[in-house]
Design a protein that fits this description.
The chain is 29% helix and 23% strand. By secondary structure, the protein is α/β, with parallel strands linked by helices. Strands 2-1-23-22-21-20 form a six-stranded antiparallel sheet, with helices on both faces.
Length: 478
């Protein structure tokens, strides 16, 4: 009897919440064949004490990449908008007439975005300081983050996808190779190049030139990637249609230390340096100044890539860096989660039910409530980091993950959003500025096997907030 009563009460609450939704919003989910029992929503004007409406806002849901809002806001507050990561080079011996009589030690501090161009500038700096030749080995210090066993196939059995690259204290060029395919000038062959072109990655012959439409070009090039950790190979035994023009394919190959070793070997030599040493792991010397330092762009620039482009490995790097704000290195996910929870408590941002595993949302275990995310967005709007946080979000119909959405809607350019997608999950959260310049917090999460059908309903919600939230009266539906 008790179970029946609890079920009936739960059903009553759910039905009441559903009835409070604006009819067009509820109808959008009906039209998308997404049941409301798989949906959690909050719409609230910025500065208001209570939501305009909410549906099941206290149920912990998997937010997918919307979790990045928690990570990036905590980072802007705890690290500061101008925070920069360092990558340091130390001399493990005397430098005599341009020759290092010992090892070159490179220490990473978790920089989320060392591009090929930045790495080239780092190598050029070494050369400019008089390092012509390394007689010893390349010694890497990756102890700022605790080495953890990472299975890139664990999440979705796609170990070569760059989004499955694990975090590392010395992450260079996202640990990924860009393969570029293009017809040659004569149109009778395919030109193939790898960026970066590392000796550790053997590159086979390009695919044959083909006719017809481009279609599923990745399926037709006959790619075969073999990743052994220390070495890798890429072969393409199929064909590539001339109609494709230039196309690229990013693939995660090599483990972190061998990728960094390959990057050093390639680009130090490109800068005119000499090196024939091996790879080893060490701890950098303490108490002495580095020989050269590479600094990252400022955090406010980094978080734009994380939120607009939904970069998972960058989010994981930031998340682990948060651990070092309160705990001595090496950083671990558990320590990072502790820092985030403390931060939320100290800022009085209630997020009950929060489960944060890696800070990126690429997880089956992470959980957050729509109500908690709304509280976070409200706190971010009151924060000194408000502008940096808001500008990191994708702008409707303009850039990032919503560049191709809202193209035919009045909300184009007027919504700042973070999106999230996993199998069984569709979500978005952010701000909508209506025609009267009122600002609205919008959070919507779908956890349901049919979530893939829900994008149109989420977009309809955002459009409705822009057009109608300011004038909607819930009494008109009674």
């Amino acid at each position: 009897m008790t179970r029946v009563f609890v079920f009936a009460a739960t059903l009553l609450v759910a039905c009441t919440a559903s009835a409070e939704l604006p009819r067009p919003v509820g109808q959008a989910f009906v039209d998308a064949n997404v049941p409301l029992h798989g949906v959690s929503l909050v719409v609230q004007e910025v500065g208001a004490a209570h939501p305009l409406f909410a549906h099941d806002p206290t149920r912990p849901m998997n937010p997918a990449s919307v979790m990045k809002l928690v990570t990036t806001f905590a980072a802007l507050e705890l690290l500061g908008r101008d925070y920069r990561w360092k990558t340091e080079a130390y001399l493990g011996g005397p430098l005599v007439n341009g020759v290092l009589q010992g090892d070159l030690v490179i220490k990473g501090y978790g920089d989320p975005k060392i591009t090929i161009e930045q790495w080239q500038s780092f190598m050029a700096a070494l050369r400019a300081k008089g390092l012509d030749r390394v007689a010893g080995d390349l010694a890497l210090d990756r102890t700022w983050f605790k080495p953890a066993k990472h299975d890139p196939a664990e999440f979705d059995k796609e170990p070569l996808k760059p989004y499955n690259v694990g975090p590392d204290a010395l992450l260079v060029s996202f640990n990924s190779i860009r393969f570029v395919f293009a017809p040659n000038a004569a149109g009778d062959a395919v030109e193939l190049r790898a960026e970066p072109a590392l000796a550790e990655v053997a590159l086979g012959a390009p695919p044959r030139i083909g006719a017809g439409d481009c279609g599923d070009w990745r399926g037709t090039v006959g790619a075969r990637f073999v990743n052994r950790g220390a070495t890798a190979s890429a072969a393409f035994a199929g064909s590539f249609a001339a109609a494709c023009g230039e196309r690229d394919w990013y693939v995660a190959l090599l483990d972190h230390p061998h990728f960094a070793y390959g990057m050093f070997s390639t680009y130090f030599r490109e800068a005119g340096g000499l090196f024939n040493g091996r790879l080893k792991d060490v701890q950098a010397p303490s108490g002495i100044a580095p020989f050269a330092t590479l600094e990252s762009p400022p955090l406010y620039d980094i978080v734009r890539d994380v939120n607009k482009l939904s970069n998972n490995v960058m989010a994981r790097q930031i998340f682990l860096t948060l651990a070092t704000t309160r705990h001595p290195p090496p950083a671990t996910p558990a320590l990072a989660a502790d820092v985030v929870q403390r931060f939320l408590k100290e800022r009085r941002i209630p997020m009950p039910g929060l489960v944060i595993e890696n800070g990126s949302g690429l997880s089956r275990n992470e959980r957050v409530t729509a109500g908690g995310l709304a509280q976070l967005l409200a706190a971010a709007d009151r924060s000194a980091a408000r502008e940096e946080f808001a500008s990191s979000l994708a702008v409707a119909a303009t850039d990032g993950t919503v560049q191709k959405r809202f193209q035919n809607g009045t909300v184009a350019g007027q919504a700042l959003l973070k999106t999230g997608t996993l199998e069984g999950v569709k979500a978005l959260a952010g701000y909508v500025i209506d025609a009267e310049s009122r600002r609205w917090i919008v959070v919507a999460i779908i956890n349901h096997p049919g979530a893939v059908r829900g994008q149109a309903a989420l977009d309809a919600l955002v459009q409705w907030v822009y057009r109608s939230a300011g004038t909607w009266d819930p009494k008109s539906q009674r």
